């Protein structure tokens, strides 16, 4: 089936996930091979996903871990987990 | 997907949990350490403020300790912990009556028409660019600006790298809904970020050349 750009955009996320039905995937790939706009949209979406997954984008606050474990120490010293 | 590494992690965690429930409470530090970042990010996906997110993260982890006996090995410990964190964050939001406003903002987003940023001259920002504070800020702001329902899914799936099934389980929504929200969220991020990153990189390139050419 010949797909229009708009239809290809609908499938971009599933295409990246690798969960597209093989027949649809083949149609999408056929379109991507000759459509520069859609292949750029695909590349940039994929790139955005890679970038936001990087730990540097949201860093833990300074001494987050230190404060957490200090607080845990106080609770662990005085409380047992509740009985199940 | 259950890899050998995942199986051994699960076994290690089961042993730690059994020891803690048996009285070796100190082991809770070891149990929680690999998930600190995940818990914090999950909290931040809802509350949007670093101080509050830290507070929610601490409360969620304390709750996980207190309720540890109710953890059943049929789910992954991380999924259970994230569900507790989401719950803690939502309770906080409900107390502040912010949830209603946010859920109104989200209406119709799942069905809306969508056009991505069709910029053929921008395809890739290398990971090295993340060394730059401006690039990190652009990405952080774009995630923070997503409607809450989309942000949760992006944080769990794309940032914490849970599977689609685990994301659905942690959020208590269907797999189909996770996929729809994930798709919309990713395209919203692309639409916002593609033009911004393109400008940021172009200006960088130009100033780079200017710096290298002494006569400018």
Description:
The complex is a heterodimer of chains A (84) and B (216). By secondary structure, chain A is mainly α. Chain A has one domain. Chain A is built from four helices and no strands. In chain A, helix 1 (5-17) packs across helix 2, helix 1 packs parallel to helix 3 and helix 2 (22-34) packs across helix 3. The relative contact order of chain A is 0.10. Chain B has 216 residues and is mainly alpha-helical. Chain B folds into two domains: 1-98, RNA polymerase sigma factor, region 2, helix turn helix motif (Rna Polymerase Sigma Factor, Chain: A, Orthogonal Bundle); 114-216, Winged helix-like DNA-binding domain superfamily/Winged helix DNA-binding domain (Arc Repressor Mutant, subunit A, Orthogonal Bundle), CATH 1.10.10.10. In chain B, 69% of the residues lie in helices and 0% in strands. Chain B is built from ten helices and no strands. In chain B, helix 8 (148-159) crosses helix 10. At the A-B interface, helix 1, helix 3 and helix 4 of A face helix 2, helix 3, helix 4, helix 7 and helix 8 of B.
């Amino acid at each position: 089936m010949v797909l229009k750009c708009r239809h290809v955009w609908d499938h971009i996320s599933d295409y990246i996930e690798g969960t597209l039905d093989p027949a649809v995937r083949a149609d999408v790939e056929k379109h991507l091979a000759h459509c520069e706009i859609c292949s750029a949209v695909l590349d940039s979406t994929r790139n955005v996903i890679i970038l936001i997954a990087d730990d540097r984008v949201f860093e833990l606050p300074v001494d987050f871990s230190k404060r957490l474990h200090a607080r845990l120490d106080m609770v662990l010293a005085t409380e047992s987990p509740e009985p199940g | 997907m259950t890899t050998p590494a995942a199986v051994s992690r699960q076994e290690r965690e089961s042993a730690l949990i059994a020891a803690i429930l048996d009285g070796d409470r100190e082991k809770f530090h070891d149990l929680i350490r690999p998930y600190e970042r995940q818990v914090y990010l999950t909290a931040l996906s809802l509350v949007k403020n670093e101080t509050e997110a830290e507070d929610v993260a601490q409360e969620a982890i304390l709750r996980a300790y207190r309720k540890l006996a109710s953890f059943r090995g049929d789910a992954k410990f991380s999924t259970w912990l994230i569900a507790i964190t989401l719950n803690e964050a939502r309770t906080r939001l409900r107390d502040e009556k912010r949830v209603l406003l946010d859920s109104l903002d989200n209406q119709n987003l799942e069905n809306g028409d969508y056009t991505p940023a069709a910029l053929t001259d921008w395809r890739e920002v290398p990971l090295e660019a993340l060394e730059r504070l401006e690039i990190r800020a652009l990405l952080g702001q774009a995630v923070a600006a997503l409607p809450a329902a989309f942000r949760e899914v992006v944080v769990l799936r794309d940032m914490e790298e849970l599977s689609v099934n685990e994301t659905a389980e942690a959020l208590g929504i269907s797999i189909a809904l996770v996929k729809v929200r994930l798709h919309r969220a990713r395209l919203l991020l692309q639409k916002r970020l593609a033009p911004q990153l393109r400008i940021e990189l172009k200006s960088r390139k130009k100033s780079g050349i200017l710096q290298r050419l002494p006569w400018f």
